[in-house]
Amino acid sequence: MAATQPLRGRAALLLRAPDRAASTVDELAARGARTVLCPLIDFELPADTSALDAGLRRLLDGGYDWMVLTSITTIRALKQRCEALGLEFSIPGGTSLAAVGEASARVARTEGLSVDFVPEDKSAAGLVAELPLEGGERAFLPQADIAADTLEAGLSGRGVRADVVMAYRTVDAPADPGRRLTATLAVGTGTRPADAETWGPERLAHGLEQIDAVLFTSPSIVRRFADVAGTGYGGLAVAIGESTRAELEELGFARIATSGEPTPAAMADVWEADLVGAPDHRIHGSGTDETVREPEEKR
Predict the structure, then answer these.
(1) Domain that holds residue 196
(2) Confidence tier at 135 by pLDDT (50, 70, 90)
(3) In this protein, which residues make up the domain named Tetrapyrrole biosynthesis uroporphyrinogen III synthase (predicted)?
């Protein structure tokens, strides 16, 4: 069986904290590879949550026609803030829930939320184009601090009053302990810590020769890695999606393969494909995921 496992004996670097890496570590271990963790970015609630709190209360009071989810991290932020306010995170009967991608939709459903819409083109632009709107509707749009204005501008252009609020901030690891996102979800993230070797950022300067592939799960992680370790890494850079690939290309990384889906299985598939010389690196995979695509980020 070992002969059929291209990843056996190889090492991947995943730039995440242990509590957000278990699914990927397990997936790679099942294929014979080990994972080294090096958390470079983290997520925390905004210092001032008044706008987020007001949006959540309006949502729970039925004040929106739509809520739009852009990531699993958004769900964690909303759930954590509701817990702090003594509120139950739910969607009222008169509000429809749209998710940009299948991963966030799957986690939302597991959290007991009914997802009404996921676009065929699983991107912010796809959701703007495909969302069934009547005009004059009001939408709650909680996002990361670095999210692009694609959704806000697109929905406004279609006659929707979009209340955009910062749900969480993307920061260099570690986050402020008092604001760090720690809410646990039923699947995908925050469920248990991964059992894997963990490096500090200082190890990247002299430890990358031990690494066969680096898994990049957002453009912001690419930029942070480049700040800490430079762009001279000669091994395979596995991008979770096209926006992450574009950032790697812009910064001059030499070898890039792109996953067709934002899942651990898809990233492992694309790494295997590179090793066996498959010509098309955009390979679709399946499986649960804590390495969900981040929202579209400001460039």
Answers:
(1) 2-40+186-275
(2) confident
(3) 24-268
